Amino acid sequence: MKPKDDKKLASIERATYALVQESGLMPLTLAAIARAAGIATSTLYIYYPSKEALLDALYERAKSATFERLTRGAGTELAPKLRIRQIWLNMLNNRLDHPAEMVFQEQYVSSRFMSESNRELGKRFVREFDEVLEAGRRDHILKAVALPFLGACILGSVRETARLVAAGILPDDESTRTTGFQLCWDALKA
Amino acid sequence: MKPKDDKKLASIERATYALVQESGLMPLTLAAIARAAGIATSTLYIYYPSKEALLDALYERAKSATFERLTRGAGTELAPKLRIRQIWLNMLNNRLDHPAEMVFQEQYVSSRFMSESNRELGKRFVREFDEVLEAGRRDHILKAVALPFLGACILGSVRETARLVAAGILPDDESTRTTGFQLCWDALKA
Amino acid sequence: MKPKDDKKLASIERATYALVQESGLMPLTLAAIARAAGIATSTLYIYYPSKEALLDALYERAKSATFERLTRGAGTELAPKLRIRQIWLNMLNNRLDHPAEMVFQEQYVSSRFMSESNRELGKRFVREFDEVLEAGRRDHILKAVALPFLGACILGSVRETARLVAAGILPDDESTRTTGFQLCWDALKA
Amino acid sequence: MKPKDDKKLASIERATYALVQESGLMPLTLAAIARAAGIATSTLYIYYPSKEALLDALYERAKSATFERLTRGAGTELAPKLRIRQIWLNMLNNRLDHPAEMVFQEQYVSSRFMSESNRELGKRFVREFDEVLEAGRRDHILKAVALPFLGACILGSVRETARLVAAGILPDDESTRTTGFQLCWDALKA
DNA sequence: CATGAATGAGATTTCATTCAT
DNA sequence: AATGAATGAAATCTCATTCAT
Prior knowledge:
Four copies of one chain form a homotetramer. The first copy, chain A, folds into two domains: 1-49, Homeodomain-like (Arc Repressor Mutant, subunit A, Orthogonal Bundle), CATH 1.10.10; 52-188, Tetracycline Repressor, domain 2 (Orthogonal Bundle), CATH 1.10.357.
């Protein structure tokens, strides 16, 4: 049961994300996915053995892609503030560029206890993230508080800023990014 | 003539919140709700004409209750910082005291276009909230940035802090509240 | 379980006939009957032990009332043609004056093998009717054909004439009755 | 790719007619139809989107088939009396050959306001029928009375004769047809 | 591979009937 | 007697999954 057609896989993926973003997981049916993907329902079973497997697989893919996007261009060669700023921007752009994928992930996590590998992946990002924060704290650039407080600030700031941009309340431009990060940084900095 | 039982309504409410918190909306069935509430499935139809109506009603109730809790004890008699602090605490406590209700709300919003009254209620809180921020900004206590940035900071901070407390990563005590709000305030203050 | 309130009985009767005339037996529910009769559903059980019993009882009453109306003023003192004419008119007026009751009867017979007493009552009318026809045939006033042919003519003529009057295609007046019966009589007469 | 099975459609049709003839519309369930048709209940939903749609579709089909049977072999090349006789026979045979279909139609009409196309079809037959009668009346072969009176005679005669044959009271033979039509003709003829 | 038909398990909904007041 | 609430059984309908082509 090795999938052959990558175009079909991609359209299944896109269809599912879009449907979940539109109306959530509650009314998500295989028939709807297949229809939106332009294939027959039974064809889904050539690519995935069950609905659960399909959603799990999409979730893993989304998580991996997200992880890759979040860490891009934020290597150790950058100064702490710049690194954090880069991650902040990555997180924001990720949310703005892939809203359906994000909604899918958030809806799905709360409805499934994560598979082991997913949990692992999540932890891996948190670990890398924490290392950055840890370094900044050690150098007295960031506040001397428990790491989770710092992480929470960043996540919260990104999430809400993204929500406002997506809702059209804030413009999707440089100034929003500058101001948004400025506030966040004031919360973090020592 | 037996009166429509308020205890039953409450247990339906509780059962639904709990089930959604446990596994989300996807596998939520009327049978499960009825079972958890200790009544027959058909009895649900005495209280609500359909599954959709039931969820809608619960959502409206949750939203109202939340609104009431958020604005409690944060009147205009307080100084801006204290008022904001009170709202911040209200928001945090609300999330920690009624996790199931919160999960239900968040899961449900994305799966339904909100009813007019809900939208109205949401706007009403935002308006009140914005007035507080507006006042603080006018007095040069808060940063001179667009209001949404300030609101976003508070919401984001509360949400993530609550998540960490609920997950057991941060303790549910005074120090968490003090530190959490401190970071938030540093982001906001002029 | 002796019914007390005749007004309630009557309103149950009326409600049921009306509902059946409006949309047939298929969607007829006790709740609908009770609502239309202005009482509670459970109150129906004070008057009838079950839905089936209720319908059976109404059917019997309708049949009796119909029987009484059909034979009224058509005694043996009349000449055969006048007697037949009277019965023809009775049948027509019965259909026009009690359409709901008629519809109920016709819908109901085909959905129930009749109870013994109902069958008996039906037969009683047919017997009396046949006697009239038999007499006319013996006197060479009616055609010398099997009685059912004669009965069929009368019934068919009445039923279709009534339908046309009810539909507004023919006027509900003396001329319709005269012409309608004239055709029928031409079919019957020797 | 399996084609939608015409045999299945036919057996659904047959099963429904038979069940309705047996006990009417009141206790007609999809489960019973499916059982009688030898398929799963859910399979019905492949062919019709709802119970109502199923019954509507069957009704339309029955009506069309009936129309076709009634007008067969009664073209304008026949003399008026023969044409009317042919239609009379068609009507009778139709009732005797397809009793279940007829019962279904009659039960169903009263429980549904007819769809536009059905109403149209009904009118089409009436129009054709009326033309025949009109012609006969113009030639002084039929009585000089309003057309509906003539139509009513024929319909009534057929309906009641068929009922008696179906009930075994009259034999299903040539003599019944001859006598039955004779009476009817005497009613119509000038 | 791909598909539309078919299905069984289960979800929602209805409803005659019973219960408690 | 009368009622509204409650319910179990059953009806309608849905949907993930399998089958046959």
